[in-house]
Amino acid sequence: FCSRIQRQAETTSEELGAVTVKASYRASEQKLRVELLSASSLLPLDSNGSSDPFVQLTLEPRHEFPELAPRETQKHKKDLHPLFDETFEFLVPAEPCMKDGACLLLTVLDHDTLGADDLEGEAFLPLRSVPGLTGTEEPGEVPQTRLPLTYPALNGDPVLQLLESRKGDREAQVFVRLRRQRAKQASQHAPRPGQ
């Protein structure tokens, strides 16, 4: 996750779109609050030239937050610039949030009634950058953060290759399978040069 966060930080283009969030941590309640405001400039993945987007929110890496189930926004019909304006709260101690690579993974998907949902892109919010997490002070006005969407690389990721070699580790195998599935979806929808 550290390398994906770094890659996203180096991304200047929003050719896959972007998501806008506000996040804060209330230490007194051990609560991470995430306001998912909107997504913009999403790629049209449906044959009608639009998309039916929704966002899945997951705290990663999973082994640090095993008891927290992924959350999802409402699905928006035929909208490449959806306004979600939804708030999610995760009850989580500050300690795992401060670790390297701990992040909120925002996966933007295009809802598909018949088949599997298509991947629009992913964004990563490093948790240690969330206001209220590092100190005892309660966060005041929380700034909006705009995150460009990126695609996972199909192969060549040394971390995935290492995890894949752990044949007896069920969690590693599930993780690798999900990442490869998303990377495969991404390669099918990647914008061609000149589009």
TrEMBL record:
One GO term describing the cellular component: exocytic vesicle
InterPro entries registered for this protein in UniProt: C2_dom, C2_domain_sf, UNC-13_domain
Gene3D superfamilies: C2 domain
Pfam families from the UniProt entry: C2
Domain called C2: residue spans: 15-140
Record field: transmembrane: none
Biological-process GO terms, alphabetical: exocytosis
Keywords: Exocytosis
SUPFAM superfamilies tied to this protein: C2 domain (Calcium/lipid-binding domain, CaLB)
Protein family according to the UniProt entry: Belongs to the unc-13 family.
Name the UniProt record assigns to this protein: Protein unc-13 homolog D
Organism of derivation: Neovison vison (American mink)
Gene: UN13D
